[in-house]
């Protein structure tokens, strides 16, 4: 968790410096498009500050009021960042429309473009680093902040191309068109982050993660794991909570059932590389399970095995045994 805080502090301090660069570029050029980029940098700074707080809070241990921990705060961080980006997009579009009727004279364009190019390179490098570290640390907050910085660098690149065209042609309206285009792009980026955060807060299924868990179970399944169904995965920041039903031979005693469940727990925690809490409901097998059961020398088998069933997400997520497969 200390590494996550350190990365966010890098982002926060860098964001403040780059914000000053961009506003300086706007003050010397009076370019509405450059102001667009500068306004978005304010969002970067505020979002990084809240991201630092959310990572600090999510690292706190579980307590009586938060039995599942504090990891959900990361989705609030993403929601705030998306909301700020969306508001910034609205302000940018509004300013561009205003300048259609009340244009400003642009000057010192080359100097402003140079400063802007520097900020774009720094944002892209830092954003790429944060996405890579966010994936390795399984931190949604760091990945969201990194993607935001990359989006900022892409918009800066597009802005530079447009400003170069403006410099070569002298057509002042290009500045307004650039600002409008970037404003709508920023609105869309904010919407995507808002959508992601709401999905996380409402425990929307993460099919990539579910597929990963199911693949691990399929590749390491034991004969005694007759089927797995009603599997659900919830993410709480840097932790996962998985619950499912597992069908085991009905002649296993309680000690044996506990051993099997513990093996699944250890397997998932080892392979997924995220701290995972599992709640496994053990179901006894029924005669209808025999036609796909792999147990050898079963003392209660009512019919021979006839089919092999491959576990995949659609099958394992269903809330019923695999009788009709």
UniProtKB/TrEMBL annotation:
Asked if the Swiss-Prot or TrEMBL record annotates the protein with the keyword Transmembrane helix, the reply is yes
- Could you name the domain of life of the organism this protein comes from? Bacteria
Membrane-crossing ranges are: 7-28, 75-101, 113-131, 176-194
Q: Which Pfam families match?
A: Cation_efflux, ZT_dimer
Q: Give residue ranges for domain Cation efflux protein transmembrane.
A: 9-202
Q: Where is the Cation efflux protein cytoplasmic domain?
A: 208-285
Tell me which InterPro entries the record gives: Cation_efflux, Cation_efflux_CTD, Cation_efflux_CTD_sf, Cation_efflux_TM, Cation_efflux_TMD_sf, CDF_Transporter
Signal peptide: which range, if any? none
**Gene3D superfamilies, sorted:** Cation efflux protein transmembrane domain, Cation efflux protein, cytoplasmic domain
Q: Where is it located?
A: Membrane
Q: Please report the record's description of how this protein sits within the membrane.
A: Multi-pass membrane protein
UniProt keyword Aminoacyl-tRNA synthetase present: no
Q: Which UniProt keywords apply?
A: Membrane, Transmembrane, Transmembrane helix, Transport
List the PANTHER family.
MITOCHONDRIAL METAL TRANSPORTER 1-RELATED
Q: Return the similarity comment.
A: Belongs to the cation diffusion facilitator (CDF) transporter (TC 2.A.4) family.
Listed name of the protein? Cation diffusion facilitator family transporter
Q: Which organism is it from?
A: Olivibacter oleidegradans
At the highest ranks, the source species' classification is: Bacteria, Pseudomonadati, Bacteroidota, Sphingobacteriia, Sphingobacteriales
């Amino acid at each position: 968790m200390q590494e996550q805080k350190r990365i966010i502090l890098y982002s926060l301090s860098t964001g403040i410096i780059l914000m000053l660069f961009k506003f300086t570029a706007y003050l010397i050029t009076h370019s509405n498009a450059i102001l667009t980029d500068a306004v978005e940098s304010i969002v970067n700074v505020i979002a990084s500050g809240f991201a630092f707080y959310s990572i600090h809070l999510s690292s706190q241990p579980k307590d009586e009021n938060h039995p599942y921990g504090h990891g959900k705060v990361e989705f609030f961080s993403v929601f705030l960042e998306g909301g700020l980006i969306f508001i910034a997009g609205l302000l940018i579009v509004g300013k561009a429309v205003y300048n259609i009727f009340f244009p400003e004279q642009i000057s010192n364009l080359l100097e402003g473009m140079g400063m802007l190019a520097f900020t774009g390179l720094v944002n892209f490098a830092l954003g790429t680093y944060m996405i890579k570290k966010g994936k390795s640390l399984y931190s949604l907050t760091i990945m969201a902040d990194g993607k935001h910085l990359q989006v900022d660098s892409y918009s800066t690149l597009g802005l530079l191309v447009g400003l170069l065209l403006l410099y070569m042609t002298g057509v002042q309206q290009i500045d307004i068109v650039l600002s409008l285009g970037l404003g709508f792009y920023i609105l869309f980026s904010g919407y995507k982050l808002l959508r992601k955060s709401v999905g996380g807060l409402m425990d929307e299924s993460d099919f990539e993660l579910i597929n990963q868990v199911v693949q691990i179970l399929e590749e390491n399944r034991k004969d005694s794991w007759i089927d797995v169904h009603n599997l659900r995965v919830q993410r709480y920041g840097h932790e996962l909570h998985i619950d499912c039903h597992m069908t085991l031979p009905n002649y296993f005693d309680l000690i044996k059932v506990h051993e099997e469940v513990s093996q699944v727990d250890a397997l998932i925690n080892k392979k997924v590389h995220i701290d995972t809490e599992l709640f496994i409901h053990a179901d006894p097998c029924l005669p209808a399970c025999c036609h796909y059961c792999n147990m050898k020398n079963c003392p209660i088998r009512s019919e021979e095995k006839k089919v092999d069933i491959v576990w995949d997400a659609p099958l394992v997520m269903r809330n019923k045994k695999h009788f009709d497969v």
